[in-house]
């Protein structure tokens, strides 16, 4: 059976771990040539892994040159790199706020702006990783909620803009719920230390909060990304794909 991303070229940001690593692995299994980027390059990585701080326009430009020279085009861009901030409003400094916006919002804007030219020659797909926090509010997450709401809406704006200009670039967002990654592990450790979750088995408590009685895995998100990246989703643009085990359906 033909693999679903055979012959396609992809770039995934924040690919060193968590959801980004899961998406990169699934794309490779489906036949894509996958470039990854992150703040650091993992030991043993080849020239398919780039030092790409998504806040840095010059890093994006270097990534564009690297992929153009090797591949001549880009079919799939996954803007996945992101940072979380769980802090009540009075404790969020302007520097904290700007850091979250720089990574989660400006990083996505820069990726789309610098790379869309390399994607415009043939049917291509941009996938922005937002969150259920981009749809509903949570206490102590004003900066993160705002950033993920911005990603959701930037996605819709660019989907319509590219369509209006006849550019064959689809743009969609994915909204993960609770996914077990280092990011969520840090948050869960903190809540357990504060006594908000069972100290011995905090993940059981987190699972019990989810309608399907379990947390998700990077693979759950990667399967949605494979669909949006593939030609099967050729008429899909501007959507928000919620993969959360039912969290926001309540
Ligand atoms: N884990 C969850 O439950 C969950 C839920 C909803 C949304 N998300 C979103 O999914 C995405 C991935 O999250 P995760 O849980 O895998 O997080 P993670 O912290 O485990 O991994 C994030 C990766 O992004 C990288 N990164 C951070 N800042 C960067 C920068 N400036 N430039 C390049 N790379 C950078 C990190 O080095 C890390 O490798 C994020 O956008 C996050 O907001 C996660």
Word description of this protein:
By secondary structure, this protein is α/β, with parallel strands linked by helices. It has two domains: 9-178 and 217-245, NAD(P)-binding Rossmann-like Domain (Rossmann fold), CATH 3.40.50; 180-215, no CATH class. Helix content is 43%, strand content 14%. The chain contains seven helices and seven strands; from the N terminus they run βαββαβαβαβαααβ. The protein has a seven-stranded parallel β-sheet, sandwiched between helices. Helix 1 links the parallel strand 1 and strand 2 (33-38). The chain is globular and about 55 Å long. The N and C termini lie far apart (38 Å). The model has no long low-confidence stretch (mean pLDDT 97).
N-to-C span: 38 Å
> Which stretches of 5+ consecutive residues score pLDDT under 50?
none
Helix content: 40-55%
N to C succession of SSEs = EHEEHEHEHEHHHE
Give every kind of bound small molecule, once each.
nicotinamide-adenine-dinucleotide
CATH class of the largest domain: Alpha Beta
**CATH homology group of the largest domain:** NAD(P)-binding Rossmann-like Domain
Q: What is the number of domains? A: 2
CATH architecture type of the largest domain: 3-Layer(aba) Sandwich
Major beta sheet summary = 7 strands, parallel
From the spread of the alpha carbons, the general shape counts as globular
Mean pLDDT, to the nearest integer, reads 97
Number of helices: 7
Give the amount of beta strand, in percent: 5-15%
Structural class of the secondary elements?
alpha/beta
Q: What is the number of strand segments?
A: 7
Name the strands of the widest sheet in spatial order: 3-2-1-4-5-6-7
Q: C-alpha Rg, in Å?
A: 18 Å
CATH topology of the largest domain: the name is Rossmann fold
